[in-house]
Amino acid sequence: MSVLLIEPFYGGSHKQLMDLLQEELQEDCVLCTLPAKKWHWKARTSALYFMQTVPTSSNYRFMPEHKLARLDKVIGVKRNGDAYQSEGLPGQQESRAVMKTSDAHPESGLCEPQPGLCTTQHEGLPSPAAAPVQAEAPESTNPCQGEDKQCLTFNLSNILSGLDYQQRPLHIAWPHRWEHDKDPETFFKVLMKLKEQDLTFHVSVLGETFSEIPDIFSEAREVLGSSVLHWGFLPSKDDYFRALCTADVVISTAKHEFFGVAMIEAVHCGCYPLCPKALVYPEIFPAEYLYSTPEQLFKRLQNFCKRPDIVRRHLYKGETAGFSWAALGSKFRSLLAAEPREDL
């Protein structure tokens, strides 16, 4: 089985899934990516870029006959053996010339039809001939760099020393990208309100950061002060899971979420989830873990701050085993090996 994996936002949970598929499939698997930046632009333009840069191959670039016939009518597709090329698109003539010589010029930036990784580090969609091959993770920044703060490392022994488990303040985790679509404004406003009422809690703000960080993060860091237990991205997956294992509650305030890997991981580590009653969350989490308004979220956390033992005794009533590779691996294999159907 030959598989072409295309990921225009190669970072976070997207990268995690692509790397897992490439590792577990262990077949002729080609991965083509773009950096994890400006997802709204990637959604609009990445298809055009990949159309020009992914090389044709008889192993995986197939379409049902009815779709090829439609393309013939719409954009004038010419069939040439197992490969097909389209005319009339901006930059297509240059792209075509590069594809023909890609075997002799790997520096062209195109994905070769063999196992490997092709990651192009661009903000926009440049000419394919100018796209360098990169195998590096997308650029991220650490807002705590240079500061002598606890956020630079995660030391489990320092957190637990001198505090009985049941006596520790409620530990809240927020393990999401530091971007507006995760709605950090709502999350921090709720925590600031808890702080105003002199409620005791700890917070770990995890997740990856990029070049543009919403202003609310610097404001919240100052207001929350000693309530901050950890602040910033943890490159080590082990440290990240240790942080989740010490947390009591994991919060999502997302306005855009197709699945929510970070929430499932946190629940698997023993956290009590609180998610919006919207997006994909009602399909995954039982009703008691959902809230409809920021006021409801505040009231739930207010009660938990007063009685953290309630959360710590709680056993999650949902199921996470169904999201493991052991449960889904065979389904992914069947899907990727399936023959094209008329309804695809």
User: What structural class results from the helix and strand content?
Assistant: alpha/beta
Secondary structure: helix percent: 25-40%
Strand content: 15-25%
Query: What about the largest sheet?
Result: 6 strands, parallel
* CATH topological fold name of the largest domain: Rossmann fold
Order of helices and strands: EHEHHEEHEHEHEHEHEHEHEHHH
Q: Cα-atom Rg, whole angstroms?
A: 24 Å
Identify the CATH homologous superfamily of the largest domain: Glycogen Phosphorylase B
Can you summarize this structure?
With 344 residues, the protein is α/β, with parallel strands linked by helices.
Describe this structure in words.
The structure is a single chain. With 344 residues, this protein is of the alpha/beta class. It has 2 domains: 2-137 and 326-337, no CATH class; 150-313, Rossmann fold. Helix content is 38%, strand content 16%. The protein has 13 helices and 11 strands. It has helices at residues 12-25, 39-53, 65-74, 92-100, 156-160, 184-196, 216-224, 237-246, 261-268, 281-284, 294-306, 308-313, 325-337, and strands spanning 2-10, 28-35, 77-80, 83-86, 116-119, 170-175, 201-206, 228-231, 249-251, 272-276, 290-291. The strands form 3 sheets. Strands 8-7-6-9-10-11 form a 6-stranded parallel sheet, with helices on both faces. It has a 3-stranded parallel sheet with strand order 1-2-5. A two-stranded antiparallel ribbon has the order 3-4. The relative contact order is 0.11.
